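Hey all, quick one. A colleague (J.T.) asked me to put the histidyl-adenosine monophosphate job into the tracker so the inputs and the structure tokens live in one place instead of scattered across chat threads. No bug as far as I know, just bookkeeping. Sequence used:
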Amino acid sequence: MSTKLQGLRGMNDLLPDEAERWEAFEAIVRDWLKSYGYRPIRTPIVEATSLFCRGVGEHTDIVEKEMYSFEDRLNGEQITLRPEGTASCVRSVIEHNLLFQQPQRLYYSGPMFRHERPQKGRYRQFHQVGVEALGFAGPDIDAEHIVMCRRLWDDLGLEDVELQLNSLGDAEERARHRSELIAYLQRHEADLDEDGKRRLLTNPLRVLDTKNPALQGIVEGAPQLIAYLGEESLKHFETVQALLREAAVPYRINPRLVRGLDYYNRTVFEWTTSRLGAQATFCGGGRYDPLIAQLGGRPAPACGFAMGMERVMLLWLEGQDTDVPLVSPDVYVVHQGDAALGFAFRAAEQLRSAGFSVVFHCGGGSFKSQMKKADGSRATYAVIVGDDEAAAGVVALKPLREVGEQISVTPERLTELLADRLYGVQPA
Ligand code: HAM
């Protein structure tokens, strides 16, 4: 016998029970996105490696250590499985000129890939729902994003969530802060770890993002970007906060919040929880005004965020008293005999045309074993057809979830009866 193959580490199968929970979650998320006027966009899972190098930033963990990059064997092109969705979304918007005279509110969802060490809530293939608003400059849209997150967490009943907020200012403000930060870090260079030393000059802001507890003292004493913000950036940040207060969304300003991707300016935010252990951040985003021009488009402001679906699902399911109900068919069709097969097959199609969900028994077997399958399918009713029923042009209807008589009806009457019993619809 050949050896059994396994999926890749950090890349999970979603088996039917779990996949149904995902679909229930996705349906809630889609309604929520529609209620704010966001429209879907779908981009490929693989892109040119240079998109993420330029978009996410050469000196980020993602680009330095975590990307799944390959050479396309057929044409030698360097390609990468997308580690995030913003760069792809912006590439597509530029390529198809979607910002011509109109801003865009967009969303996407799907798998992303990062070569990280897998643990609870952290995977190598994970899923994001991402939201991007392109062509909007004002603080109102930043606040809209945060408020819409809060609504989703409320709709899902998430508990113990905290909003952390910061402003990264604009390029000039960051440049002034950067030179002082470099000077400060150079004074502490001997105590920095390897990543810190390497990034001191290339990406000093990211040194503040370190997870190394030994560096916390240095991080705490470092000059804070927020102290370097000019009038415009401060006003933007204050208006975002005023709108959050207006919407009664509590927040905590975290001056050390810098995010792990390089495209941000001004508002950045993260939603965290104490319930997911080390993987505390389940959603993050902010404004990224420089990115569109950086990827070759006409300069336009933008902002957005993405949530990790696995993390939000963990929080959601944990907070529910009862599990998400599994999908169950209305009817399971049981049949035996040659004449019954064709009759039952047609009856099943008629029921589906009338809008019912119907599982047709395939694979033969005794009535008894088929009834067992009907029960296991969680269907509400069994429709039973033998050759006698087929000859008489009727089917037997038997309730599976409550005690009740089995009755004999024509296929037409069956549709009316089920509409009434399952959905309370009386015939016209
Ligand atoms: P990000 O913070 O890198 O931002 O990722 C967003 C969310 O994806 C994280 O908060 C986390 O919940 C989830 N996530 C990230 N890595 C993993 C992983 N290895 N396993 C499970 N979940 C993970 C972005 O990706 C930006 N594109 C967000 C954005 C959109 N900013 C503006 N627009």
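Adding what we noticed when we looked at it: The pocket of histidyl-adenosine monophosphate is lined by residues 84-86, 114, 116, 121-123, 126, 128, 130, 132, 260-261, 281-285, 288, 304-308, 310-311 (CB under 6 Å). The mean pLDDT is 94.
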